[in-house]
Amino acid sequence: MAGNWKGIHFGTDYYPEHWPRERWETDAKLMQEMGIQVVRMAEFSWHKMEPVEGEFDFDWLEEAIALLGKYGIKTILGTPSAAPPAWLVNKYPEILPIDRQGRVRGFGGRHHDCQSNPTYRKYVATMVTAMAKRFAENPDVIGWQTDNEFGNSHGDLCTCDSCRSTFQKWLKKKYETVESLNAAWGNHFWSQEYNDFSEVFAPRITVTGENPSAMLDWKCFCSDLIVDFQQKQIDIIREYCPNHFITHNCMGFADKVNYFDLNRELDFACHDQYPGGFYAIMPHENNYDMAANLDITRGFKKQNFWIMEQQSGITGWEIMGRAPRPGQLSAWAGQSVAHGADAVVFFRWRTCTAGTEQYWHGILPHSGNPGRRYQELKDFIGKMKPHMEQFEGAMPKSEVAIVFSYRQEYAMQIQPQHPDLNYVGQIKKYYKELYKNNIPVDFVEDTEDFSGYKLVIAPLQYLMTPELEQKYFDYVAGGGHLLLTMRTGVKDANNICMSDRELPGRLGELCGIEILDYDCLRDVDVQVRMNESEETLLGAKWADIITSKGAKSVADYASEFYAGTPCITKNVYGDGKAYYVGTEPKEELMKRLLALITEEVGVKSLGWSDEEVELSVREKEGKKWLFAINFGLEEGCYQVPKEYKLILGSEAGVLKPFEIHLYVNE
Ligand code: GLA
Ligand code: ZN
């Protein structure tokens, strides 16, 4: 791990090559005045850096770096592999990707590349090497971003011959013999057996149906391919620039690449945060979703992170979203900081006049004259930066963890079972309820150590291995509290249904239950009653029909042919407890359920707040910084423990729309 990024807290994504050189100094001055300390540049500038094959031109970039450096602004360089130039694509048309329909995707957007193609990889390596050599000793360059948003626009790519043979090699390494591949994929079904690895296809769209096991391996392969593509760049940069950091801008819960894997060899994780999304209509209603993005980003490396792109204006390509209201951009950026961002880089400096993103607004409008957004973010930086210097490296601490697994997600995407059942959606239902109660959450990989958490929530543990089963047993036996849900222990690691015992497999012993039957709730909700309550609440999408083998019922079904049988159970095992939830709790049921569990487990809330007010804490060496942020359009109230003293804001407990209060403990 390398590089020093301490002391840097605010930046912007800058494209000097879009503007006349005479303008650059004005930009640098304006940036400096607003408190910008770093820019990211060049991640789409391949042609500007290599206009003709083998003829590199980094002079313009070096000049921009030096000019910004004069104003105290450091540079992060993006490797330009997200935008291969036309000369390269024309010379080697085979680097264009082929989608699942067998269509060649053309030049003209970005990411028109095949990441397994050896020729493409060679050109990327040459470019990255040239850049790394040129900027290794540049005093104003501090680090690198690999490519740009890996997986973005690569949704159904690539099924070309190169990817096919790379997939075959990946399978051979994993299964060794074609017989074990056939067994793992269940290829006896519909005569899908292969006689040799060379017969395996990259999955183009079929006439009908797909093999779920083959699709799971394909998705994992695509993720590994991206990780490997990035690794080649990391190796080059580490060799030439040992003093620079390397990072990548991830996209929260985007699924194409396993971000735990992608971040392993990076110095810190980054996320691109757009609360306005792709042109959201009411961008103030998804604060919990935005918080989840930040919390998962912190989870990728279990450390503080950066925002490499933070929304700084209206989002839009062909159409546009709502204008962020006065204060809203600051509240969003403040939220990033509150959840563990040590630096926030705003996308983009100035709204561009050409190309796809003419309406994805930057800090400056098209005219380049500083306006409302510049002023607001300048004020925000001025207020926040001195505090960020103090709490740099301080981490949010959570008593609750939610398990996140890309494999589970892939398997559920392949067979959602209920048309509206969705792995990330399910996770966010639990997250949202905790968020509403100001209970901090960490997202963890299923291979991590759970022992530091009072409560582990593991929705849809659909694919199960003996190791993971054992991990859950050990966690609960050692005093942990585990929440498992419907569709747990259904399949083995190859996405084949398990048949050796009733659902949820061996975990039935941990939960004290057995599931002999279930109901997929198509177009109907099931009624549920919490024990000792007459009130009818609702579950959706799924109903496990549970037989207790020692577990206590927490709630019973109150409709359908299984009325009166358990819907939610709890079981004491060793020093801990395992809860099992047989349905998707709708809002009110979720509220009651998590209130009950968090109370039983002794999980603490940071304080009380109105619905639109978020409380979060960052902690370092016993010192705590508490943030209260109001995302609502009205005044919002909250209460925090007496140990906290207000250090930013005026009236403790009352926030104007989009206002941020900051406290420290005494
Ligand atoms: C992403 C990309 C940027 C830009 C923005 C806006 O986050 O990383 O290059 O395209 O979206 O569309
Ligand atoms: Zn390909």
Overall description:
The structure is a single chain. With 666 residues, the protein is of the alpha/beta class. Helices cover 32% and strands 22% of the residues. It is built from 17 helices and 26 strands. The strands form 4 sheets. Strands 11-10-12-13-18-17-16-14-15-19 form a 10-stranded mixed β-sheet, sandwiched between helices. A 9-stranded parallel β-sheet has the order 5-4-3-2-1-9-8-7-6, with helices on one face. Strands 21-22-26-24 form a 4-stranded antiparallel β-sheet, with helices on one face. Strand 21 and strand 22 (623-630) form a beta hairpin. Helix 5 (118-135) runs parallel beside helix 8, helix 10 (287-301) crosses helix 14 and helix 14 crosses helix 17. The longest helix is centred in the middle third of the chain and has 29 residues, at 212-240. Zinc ion (ZN) binds next to helix 6.
Record the SSE blueprint.
Blueprint: E1 10-13, H1 21-34, E2 38-41, H2 46-49, H3 59-70, E3 74-78, H4 86-91, H5 118-135, E4 141-145, H6 161-175, H7 178-185, H8 212-240, E5 245-247, E6 249-250, H9 259-263, E7 270-273, H10 287-301, E8 305-311, H11 328-338, E9 341-347, H12 372-391, E10 400-403, H13 406-414, H14 423-436, E11 441-444, E12 455-458, H15 466-477, E13 481-485, H16 507-511, E14 513-530, E15 537-548, E16 552-557, E17 566-573, E18 576-581, E19 584-585, H17 587-601, E20 608-609, E21 613-620, E22 623-630, E23 636-639, E24 644-648, E25 654-655, E26 660-665
Parallel strand pairs: 1-2, 1-9, 2-3, 3-4, 4-5, 6-7, 7-8, 8-9, 10-11, 10-12, 12-13, 13-18
Antiparallel strand pairs: 14-15, 14-16, 15-19, 16-17, 17-18, 20-23, 21-22, 22-26, 23-25, 24-26
Helix pairs in contact: 5-8, 8-13, 10-14, 11-12, 14-17
The structure holds alpha-D-galactopyranose (GLA) and zinc ion.
Zinc ion (ZN) is lined by residues 97, 114, 116-117, 158, 160, 162-163.
